[in-house]
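Q: Structure for this?
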Amino acid sequence: MVPTSYYLILSAVLFGLGVVAFVFKRNVITIFMSIELMLNAVNLAFVAFSQARHQSDGQVFVLFVIVVAAAEAAVGLGIIILTARNRQSLNVERVDLLKL
Amino acid sequence: MISFLNANATIVIYFVKIALLLFIVLTVNAYLTWFERKVVAHMQSRWGPHRVGPHGLLQPLADGAKFLLKEDPTPAGVDKFTYFLAPLMALALALTSIAIIPFGPQPLHIFGRDITLGIADLNIGILALFAITALSVYGVALAGWSSNSKYPLLGGLRSSAQMVSYELALTMSVVGVLLLAGSFNLRDIISAQAHHPERGIFGWNVWPQILGFFCFFVAAVAETNRVPFDLPEAESELVAGFHTEYASFKFAMFFIAEYTSMITVSCLCTIMFFGGWLSPFPASWTFTHYLPSLILLPFGLWVIWDGIRYETVFGKIILPGVGTAIAGIGAVLIAFPAVNEFIQGPFWLLAKIFVFLFVYVWMRGTLPRFRYDQLMSFGWKLLLPISIANVVITAFVMLLRGAR
Amino acid sequence: MTPQLAIFFVLAALAVLGALNLILQRHPIHSALSLIVVMIALAGLYLLMGSEFVAAVQIIVYGGAIMVLFVFVIMLLNAGVEERTNVSKLAGVAGIPLAVALLGFLAAAIARSNESAQAGLQSGALANTKEISTMLFKDFVYPFELTSFLILVAILGAIVLAQREKS
């Protein structure tokens, strides 16, 4: 069997890569995708702990995280579409003033 | 070599099953195209393919040769990776969904081993099929976008929006069946319909779940982008929709993916609503076990008779041969009762799948297509509320029954 | 090397490569495809741990709906290739070894902790689905209803945001 620590290390690596993508990428949609990557890494940790303790709480939490991520993606992408239309650019460095 | 096979028996059996099932599914796909062209043609009072081989039976081979030998251009400015990925994804996902379907109740006893009919017996069978359906939206969306052209982009976006909308109604309409069966496993769903074998056809899920069946069938036709929901890919509308810029072999991959998903939907309809491999006759009527041979023998003899009178020499040789083979299978079934018992389950499953495929082709030949806004309002405003109502009614009735 | 360990390493490598590809690709659609690969690899890991239901929900909802939304928006906004960013060389030279060292410390700390318990497989998938659903509708029924309210709010928000200006 696979020890739980392996899953946790994988979760930490994925979370770290999500943070790197969040900091270094310029396209606002890619930054949003890195947030989803971080949420997935956390989901992996939840399920790993749930299986280690033989309780289903972690998996129920994962379902809630997925639902919240879906709601956030819907509204966030709506905001991104509006912002991109107003500034004609998806580069996050251009969105640095409140004035258009 | 034999000892190697014996040592890794499970893996070898899986490989042989997969290869055999792939071959069968691809052949059925090819002859499904022949069947569709013939049936639609006869509905339109014309012949359909009848030159290539006797009764046009070698037409799929000619089509296959054309697809392989035609020039395969790549338009300029396409996103190369996505352009090549899209048909690959569509085909791989469509073929994977066939692996989950069980084809018979009894395992096959050969070489001292029990081989179940069906590749993967998953405990989350239905959910896995929905997962594959959810992923196949990408094949369409990415194909439309990567073609670097207006009409495929519009067709791809419309088609994927349609698929995502009808996916909801599809999954909701199945929940009633899952409540009745208590499991996601496809074999358990069929077994739940076999609780009263003396009811025969009246024990199937379609009677308590008639609303669910209609919702599922309509939503599945919309998922597979077939008439009457094929606006995004119809020839007279957006050129050819998302597969406009795809030429010979990649177009063939989309084609095969569409027909394979038709076959998968027909399998699902029979398994979930029409009893799968259960016979429509009550179990006490054992004389109905001779029905396969009663159908195959006269059919084989008719093919022989038709072949002898056929116009071309090639047909005069091939058709009697095929007819003899069919009649031979019928005779074998009468002679060996053990084989006859084994073949009952798969026979009924294949017969019902054939009926559903005929209904698909029938709809193609008769119904006009929906306009896009009519399509979307139908999916969201009519089908989804009906399927949710079906879930609520089923749960309510089960609660009342359980409390009694 | 048991089969489970081998499958774990394959899926973990797939997930990490997908995440790396998300960073290294310049076109957002390729990043989106890499993220889909990561999600499918994670679903495989959930299957390996015995949570079939969560794996199926991950593919259906995350991979089949949320990422489809991302792909639609990328197509809609006609996102192009990213511009070259001017990252300072010092950050690369000093940052990457530092990050690897941090990861090494973290991995050592996790491996040495008491969480090295084996992750056991649940017995049968129906046990998994039934357990989750019992817990969801009994202990967690209040958060469950709240999430349905949350989804309603999200739908309303998306509709309001996507409306045209009433001129």
